[in-house]
Design goal:
With about 250 residues, the chain is mainly alpha-helical. Helices cover about 80% and strands about 0% of the residues. The protein is built from 13 helices and no strands. Helix 2 (about 25-35) packs antiparallel against helix 3 (about 40-60), helix 3 packs across helix 12 (about 205-225) and helix 12 (about 205-225) packs antiparallel against helix 13 (about 230-250). The longest helix is centred in the C-terminal third of the chain and has 25 residues, at about 175-195. The chain is globular, with a radius of gyration of 17 Å.
Length: about 250
């Protein structure tokens, strides 16, 4: 019962956080490692578990998503391609190698989460960039790289995508979150299908955490807003740094 509650709570929080910012994998992946799953199995199981939560998150911003320009929605294509390639690379990574990479991946994602606001201020906004072919091609290449990283590990892709959409000149944070959730659904969806088809997931944990992620994506975003953005960010940063240090000391 304790194991089930811990897994559900981590997934619920991840669903809520992913719907409004990103970084939920910083909760689900280390939780599965602490529950005893091998790191690569934990990573694949985490991806499959939180993927359904993206539906709930996307539904919450469906109105803003319908208003997004068509060129922005074309980012689904590089998202799918990068997500599949990243998942394939993960399967071919030896577990000991991935174990050594994990603390650095979590630390990178946490630092990225910490740098979200400075990145947005540095980027600035130009509302017409998404209509410039050169900017659009460059952004699609960037989105492919995000998809590759997302299929391989995943933590922090929401932050990267918000930064990329900011580069293209999007200003409405709700619309940006709608597009980000659609792209995250694409990246995690194609990776999840690959992980499931190759037998890389633990279905007991998936059943519990998928339920939590859906509930978090639909209802947890409101809770996260009530708690306050600063509190949510500080909690995720503290957990991310603590988990990176903990996993590094275990090696």
């Amino acid at each position: 019962m304790t194991r089930t509650l811990v897994a559900f709570a981590a997934a619920f929080a991840a669903g809520a956080i992913n719907s409004v910012a990103g970084g939920g994998t910083l909760l689900t992946f280390p939780t599965l490692v602490w529950l005893g799953l091998p790191s690569i199995v934990a990573n694949a199981t985490s991806t499959v578990s939180i993927w359904p939560g993206s539906f709930g998150a996307m539904w919450g911003f469906r109105r803003e998503l319908r208003q997004a320009d068509a060129p922005i929605l074309a980012f689904v294509i590089p998202s799918l391609a990068g997500g599949l390639l990243g998942a394939m690379l993960l399967r071919r990574t030896p577990t000991p190698v991935f174990d050594h990479l994990v603390p650095f991946l979590i630390l990178f994602a946490t630092l990225l989460f910490m740098a979200q606001d400075p990145l947005q201020r540095l980027i600035g906004h130009s509302p017409d960039r998404h209509r410039d072919t050169r900017w659009l091609i460059g952004a699609m290449v960037f989105q492919f790289a995000i998809g590759l990283y997302g299929g391989y590990f995943g933590a922090g892709i929401g932050i990267l995508m918000l930064a990329g959409l900011g580069i293209l000149g999007m200003r409405d944070i709700h619309q940006m979150n709608g597009v980000k959730n659609l792209l995250a659904l694409s990246i995690n969806g194609i990776a999840a299908c690959y992980f499931m088809s190759t037998g890389m997931v633990r279905w007991t944990e998936v059943a519990v955490m998928a339920t939590g992620a859906i509930a978090g994506g639909i209802g947890g975003a409101g809770l996260a807003r009530r708690v306050g953005r600063k509190t949510v960010r500080a909690t995720v940063i503290a957990i991310g740094l603590g988990m990176a240090l903990s996993l590094a000391l275990r090696q």
